[in-house]
């Protein structure tokens, strides 16, 4: 029973079936196929405006290539210290931007606050040849702490970005989970709030390997096709990437999958909070839980066959639990019952 990550789950059956269907016959290569065209049309409908969408196969590629068109080699990209681009992408954003610098801005529960961003940008040394120049801000939705940015929070940061003439990127690896938590529209928490480019995730939510870089500011997309090709992410048989996204978006499947993951996380935390000595580190607003349990409970859960990560840099007993579209309610109930028995 694995609660390490939503990446441990397989594929949603609907997406697996779509891949098998896409395998029949032939289709034009390098994205000139009907699946890729449908994905862009569906995303335009979902976001209530025309968008330009470029499928890629990893979240790191989506983020790094998106930021490469937003920041010059001498640019600064502002993000949270725990952002995926800062911690888990092996320098890819800096590499593909030709040397741009990631600049961390601390904030509670994995989120940037508009006032903190404004204070840093006010001292960003714009125009000073000795310093990197403010270029982009990157938000993670949902954050690496499992929290979500409300539309007004995004808009407040976007206003700061506009005032300082920098672009706003959103890492949406768990975009669907954040969206379901807030019951908001995709448009309201992205371009209507001031987001220029979105890395739209599907892999963590039922796809095999499929993400999309979505441009709301179409001018930024001018060189993206070449950058994607140069980075090795213009897949020759692109229909197999786009078929995943096509099925993911069909009939709100993506939202149903995220709702299940969120519901299982809510059930898990509700049960665990009843245990004496338990401390919840962050609000649970998607499908990630950061929680501190008694050490004997942590050890006993592992001995009982449950997998999860100890969280680095935190106090002993702090673990991360992640649910997915495939998490079974009976496994959540067993985890809670086992933890309660160990704590008794």
TrEMBL record:
Keyword Lyase found: yes
Entry cofactors: pyridoxal 5'-phosphate
Highest taxon of the lineage: Bacteria
Documented EC number(s): 4.1.2.48
An annotated GO BP: L-threonine catabolic process
Catalytically driven reaction(s): L-threonine = acetaldehyde + glycine; L-allo-threonine = acetaldehyde + glycine
Group of enzyme by EC: lyase
Positions of the Aromatic amino acid beta-eliminating lyase/threonine aldolase domain: 3-291
GO molecular function: L-allo-threonine aldolase activity
Keyword Secreted: no
Oligomeric form and interacting partners: Homotetramer.
UniProt function note: Catalyzes the cleavage of L-allo-threonine and L-threonine to glycine and acetaldehyde.
Similarity remark: Belongs to the threonine aldolase family.
UniProt cross-references to PANTHER family, sorted A to Z: L-THREONINE ALDOLASE-RELATED, LOW SPECIFICITY L-THREONINE ALDOLASE
Protein name per its UniProtKB record: L-threonine aldolase
Organism: Dongia mobilis
């Amino acid at each position: 029973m694995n609660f390490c990550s939503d990446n441990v789950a397989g594929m949603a059956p609907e997406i697996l079936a779509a891949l098998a269907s896409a395998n029949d016959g032939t289709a034009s290569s390098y994205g000139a196929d009907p699946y890729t065209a449908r994905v862009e049309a569906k995303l335009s409908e979902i976001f209530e405006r025309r968008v330009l969408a470029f499928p890629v196969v990893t979240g790191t590629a989506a983020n790094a290539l998106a930021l490469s068109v937003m920041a010059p080699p001498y640019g600064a990209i502002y993000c949270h210290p725990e952002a995926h681009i800062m911690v888990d992408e092996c320098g890819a954003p800096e590499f593909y931007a030709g040397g741009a610098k990631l600049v961390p801005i601390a904030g509670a529960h994995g989120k940037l606050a508009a006032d903190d961003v404004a204070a840093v940008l006010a001292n960003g040394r714009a125009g000073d040849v000795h310093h990197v120049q403010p270029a982009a801000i990157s938000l993670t939705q949902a954050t690496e702490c499992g929290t979500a940015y409300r539309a007004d929070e995004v808009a407040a940061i976007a206003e700061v970005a506009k005032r300082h003439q920098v672009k706003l990127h959103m890492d949406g690896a768990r975009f669907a989970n954040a969206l379901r938590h807030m019951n908001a529209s995709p448009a309201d928490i992205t371009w209507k709030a001031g987001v220029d480019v979105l890395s739209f995730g599907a892999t963590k939510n039922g796809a095999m390997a499929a993400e999309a870089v979505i441009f709301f500011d179409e001018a930024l997309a001018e060189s993206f096709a070449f950058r994607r090709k140069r980075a090795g992410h213009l897949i020759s048989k692109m229909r197999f990437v786009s078929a995943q996204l096509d099925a993911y978006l069909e009939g709100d499947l993506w939202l149903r999958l995220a709702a299940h993951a969120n519901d299982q996380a809510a059930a898990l935390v509700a049960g665990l909070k009843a245990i004496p000595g338990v401390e919840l580190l962050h609000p649970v607003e998607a499908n990630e839980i950061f929680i501190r349990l008694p050490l004997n409970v942590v050890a006993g859960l592992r001995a009982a066959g449950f997998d999860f990560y100890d969280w680095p840099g935190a106090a002993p007993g702090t673990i991360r639990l992640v649910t997915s579209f495939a998490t079974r309610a009976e496994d959540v109930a067993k985890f809670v019952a086992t933890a309660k028995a160990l704590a008794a």
